[in-house]
Amino acid sequence: MQKQAIFQSKLLPYALVAPQLAIVLIFFYWPALQAVIQSFLLQDAFGLSSTFVWFENYIELFKDPAYFEAVVRTFVFSFAIAVSSLSFALLLAVMADKPLRGSMLYRTLLIWPYAVAPPVVGVLWIFMLHPSLGVLSRYLRGLGVDWNPLLDGNQAAGLIILAAAWKQISYNFLFFLAGLQAIPRSVFEAAAIDGARPMRRFWTVTFPLLSPTIFFLLVVNIVYAFFDTFGIIDTMTRGGPGTSTVTLVYKVYSDGLLGGNLGSSAAQSVILMVMVIVLTGIQFRFVERKVTY
Amino acid sequence: MVEEEGFRRYVAHAILWIGIAIVAFPVYIAIVASTQDNALIANGQMSLLPGGHFFEVYYKTIFVGTSGSTREPVGNMMLNSLVMALAIAIGKIAISIISAYAIVYFRFPFRMAIFWIIFITLMLPVEVRIYPTYKIVADLHMLDSYAGLALPLIASATATLLFRQFFMTVPDELLEASRIDGAGPLRFFWDTLLPLSRTNMAALFVILFILGWNQYLWPLLITTRDDMQTIQVGIRKMITTTDALTEWPIVMATAVLAMLPPVFVVVAMQKLFVRGLVETEK
């Protein structure tokens, strides 16, 4: 698609794209290229010289059990966060879509957590569930749970998933509500006239009609769980106890922070890049089919 | 309308209020904790009702900071966050709207190549190029500066796409009319296109301001000086690994202050926020 009415100018268009192009080349492409190049190099212990080693960094990485664990953990986190947050948000959206009094107020009261930054989410939840002073930990211990997410890796992982899912409820709720409101009311009426009970109406009518929204949100939630949980993890557990809450992004960060192996860190970045490309590709293919301009 | 029987309606109301309670509870606890005495909280005896230390805690948080080694008034952190968020939001909108203008309203060599170069940055979030980007910013001597905080983040494929999409819907007659009036490309942009883009810019600004304010990984990497910390980074540094030294009322007051601006924006500008969110995700 192109505009018919245009301006003639040789230099002006370049001047207009120059600022964005400069930022993109200096801060996006150049570092990305550096990461790709680094991932094929091996530095000596003093960082003085480096040799080209083909895929050795990648091979080392795949042989490293810690990396494999981080991959599995990231996928488990993503799945758990997406499923729990999506199902709770869908329940709320279906309720808020009913003709209820005060539905605008409900929407306002449910969407604001979108604005809470991940590190703050981490701080809020670790405070509530802190082993020695958390207000909720008291009740957990009262129930006989040996609660200490700072020592127990599984509890720490559960806590991260809980906090990350909590933050994402508002986003999912908003998009589910929009998706529900786009379904013509007559469809529900037809199903009701046919005698379908509400639960049946939901599973046979609403849910299938909502599947594009569900798929879209699934991708968005996975991307969120991959990248935006960094702040939550960093304020809550800093990857610990041990490495039980280290995700792929957290591993790139912490491996590099220790000033460790540059080549390995670069290889990890490149693998993440490939994952983003795949996820964005899926998202765009889907969006193109759904939205027509 | 499918009529809901009374009982089902009550169930819906109840579920929504439970949802609201779950969503609000952590924040309620933070507000309550920020008004209490640290000793009480440290003993695990925090009350679930607000205490009487509101003014004392918030005064200390905003103007003094914690007593630890990284003492820095949170007021200053908020200022840093504000500068960064505004620079990111305004910068992204400014450079995106002019590149979209060039791509839509001009024909020039490499036009589509440039469009794709901008577009592909969608797939290069800062998380996948952390250390090489850090190195470039360090080489440019931009560590611990506002430029270093904002510049590497202000490219925006989404905003460029959005403005491109919008410009395509602007009728060609407008351009022809202003050309008859003797307007050149810059005049047309300034007098016609910008005023038409106001709502789009506002919706985008709301989303980008929140994203900018909530940045974490990047400021964490490139700020080493306490007086350049943003509030999101500052709050993490307040939680010391030796729990006994963490001043929880101040941490919680900082959490509340960190939430305040973006939450206010969402609630006060809800229409623009929803519009911006839906548009940027397309």
Show the helix and strand layout:
The complex is a heterodimer of chains A (293) and B (282).
Chain A: H1 12-38, E1 41-43, E2 50-52, H2 56-63, H3 65-96, H4 103-111, H5 118-128, H6 135-142, H7 153-181, H8 185-193, H9 198-209, H10 211-227, H11 229-236, H12 248-257, H13 262-290
Antiparallel strand pairs in A: 1-2
Chain B: H1 6-33, H2 38-42, H3 54-63, H4 74-105, H5 111-120, H6 130-139, H7 146-150, H8 157-169, H9 172-180, H10 185-196, H11 198-213, H12 217-222, H13 231-238, H14 248-268, H15 270-280
What is the compact description of this entry?
In chain A, 71% of the residues lie in helices and 2% in strands.
The whole-angstrom Rg of chain A is: 24 Å
- Which class of chain B in CATH terms? Mainly Alpha
Write out the strand line-up for the largest beta sheet of chain A, numbering strands in chain order: 1-2
Rounded average pLDDT of chain B: 87
Q: Could you report the average pLDDT of chain A, rounded to the nearest whole number?
A: 86
**What is the CA-based Rg of chain B, rounded?**
24 Å
What structural class results from the helix and strand content of chain B?
mainly alpha
CATH-assigned fold name of chain B: MetI-like fold
Helix content of chain A: over 70%
* Element-by-element helix/strand order of chain A: HEEHHHHHHHHHHHH
- Domain count of chain B, please report it: 1
Report the sheet with the most strands of chain B, covering strand number, pairing sense and barrel closure.
none
Determine the CATH superfamily of chain B. Answer: MetI-like
- The rough form of chain A would be described as globular
Percentage of residues in strands of chain B: under 5%
Low-confidence regions of chain A: 289-293
| Number of separate helices of chain B | 15
What would you say this structure looks like, in words?
The complex is a heterodimer of chains A (293) and B (282). Chain A has 293 residues and is mainly α. Chain A has 13 helices and two strands; from the N terminus they run H-E-E-H-H-H-H-H-H-H-H-H-H-H-H. Chain A has a two-stranded antiparallel ribbon. In chain A, a hairpin with a 6-residue loop joins strand 1 and strand 2. In chain A, helix 3 runs parallel beside helix 7, helix 7 runs antiparallel to helix 10 and helix 8 packs antiparallel against helix 9. Chain B has 282 residues and is mainly alpha-helical. Chain B has a single domain, classed as MetI-like fold (Orthogonal Bundle). In chain B, helix 1 packs across helix 14, helix 3 crosses helix 14 and helix 13 packs antiparallel against helix 14. At the A-B interface, helix 1, helix 3, helix 4, helix 5 and helix 6 of A face helix 1, helix 4, helix 5, helix 6 and helix 8 of B. Chain B: It is a multi-pass membrane protein.
